[in-house]
Amino acid sequence: MTTDPVVREYPDDTWADSGPTRGVEAVVESGHVLAFPHLPFAIAEAERRFLDARWADGKAKNVSLRWPRGDLRGAAGAPADLEALKRMIVRYAEQSEAFALRLFPHYRGKLRRGNTSFRPIGVLGRPRSWRQDDTRLHVDAFPSNPMRGTRLLRVFCNVNPSGEPRRWRVGEPFEAHARRYLGAIGKPWPGSAWLLTTLGITKRRRTGYDHLMLQLHDLAKADLAFQRSSPQQAVDFAPGTTWVCYSDQVLHAAMGGQHMMEQTFYLDAPDLAHPETAPLAILERLTGRPLLV
Ligand code: SIN
Ligand code: FE
Fold it and tell me: Which ligand has an atom closest to residue 140 CA?
């Protein structure tokens, strides 16, 4: 049997357009993680002080910028410090966006910038409920934020100053994962999507796709035998490494590390280079029904 490693490495050492890798839509859309071990996010001397958990306000999971306004959330400090912190995160947003559009020119004019986050808190720093526990393998899906088929592309960079890797596990291909649990997933209660929107629990109406994605997320995290014994590999992303994946497709778990930048992008499924490889298309094929209803 030939093996197809989930992580593919590339030699790029610049975020700029002159870097060598471009046109790799098919690689990321087929469920790979693109890793760039020589692509650090440059942190200025005066910014090193931000690599400290004290800048997180203790309430939010991360420090983040919300676009289009670029409001800073989840940070605590004096206004001048927060301005400097914001400038650092904005720089990551801009560099990672230019980089994504070089890697994936097919997405030009279609990729939308989501939140940018800075994660100065250690992965193992906070006890959480099993559903929020990202040390368990999962695909990203959020109860309050139905994606309705829209993809979640993420660009991560480990900015740890003391050599500590971001330690991930990556798991089985999406289709195998869906086949594992589809039989156990019931239909949503009639009227539940309407009710969740009316009560303000969901930002927009949950579709059949969102129901299945949330169930996959929850069933995987609740299944300790799956967590322990399913096909998986450990991957350490050393400081200075940038990596890119569709986190709604790649089974992933964060096992350790501290200090990371992350940029989320949204892309509507029809705008993919190969829409037939998307979770939406795979789930529609496996269930035999349209899921954006
Ligand atoms: C996650 O997306 O599940 C967490 C990724 C990380 O914090 O490294
Ligand atoms: Fe995740």
Answer: 2
Ligand 1 closest atom vs CA 134: 3
Which of 119, 252, 260, 264 for mutating ligand 1's site (highest number of atoms within 8 Å of CB)? Answer: 252
Assigned CATH topology for domain 7-287: Jelly Rolls (2.60.120)
Domains of the chain, by residue range, sit at 7-287
Protein residues whose CB sits closer than 6 Å to any atom of ligand 1: 119, 123, 134, 140, 166, 247, 252, 254, 260
The predicted-structure confidence for 176-211, as pLDDT tens digits, reads as follows 999 999 999 988 888 888 988 888 888 889 999 999
pTM over 0.85: yes
What pLDDT is stored for residue 3 in this prediction? 67
What contacts 24+ positions apart, CB below 8 Å, involve 91-97?
92/41, 92/116, 92/118, 92/157, 92/261, 92/263, 93/65, 93/67, 93/263, 95/15, 95/41, 96/15, 96/155, 96/157, 96/242, 96/261, 96/263, 97/263, 97/265
